[in-house]
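User: I'm preparing a small set of examples for a lab meeting where we compare how different chains pack in three dimensions. I only have the primary sequence for this one, and I'd like the structure in token form so I can line it up with the others. Please keep the answer compact; I'll paste it straight into my notes.
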Amino acid sequence: MKTGYHKIVVGIFCMSCLLMLARSEALDAAAQPEIPVKGMVTMVDLGAKKCIPCKMMAPILVRLEKEYAGRAAIVFLDVWEDSKPAHRFGIRGIPTQIFFDKEGKEVFRHLGFLNEEEIVRRLKDMGVK
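Assistant: Understood. Below is the structure token output for the 129-residue chain.
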């Protein structure tokens, strides 16, 4: 039979776990950019650092992120480290690239490796110079 003391200890433990979880989620939210980025064409690549096609895309994304800085947001999210974005965007396989216009509306989605030329073409089609 559980004593009153035991119930208090369990209650305090549960409350502290909830507080740590809330703090962790707040830190995660602060660390990740808002997707899609407000007022900017956004391309988000949802994948994993250890996935082979994702590894092939990594240098392309780094290059495009630098090239399009201030004109378009190029964002990589590792859904093996944090599965919340996969659920949020309804991802069924990786890598998946989603392109959003300046108003935040999804305009194109692709599953699998996407080469640099196709990404650039999509960005240009969306008005990014």
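A couple of notes for your slides: The helical segments are 4-31, 52-67, 84-89, 116-125. Strands lie at 41-47, 72-78, 96-100, 106-111.

User: Perfect, thanks.
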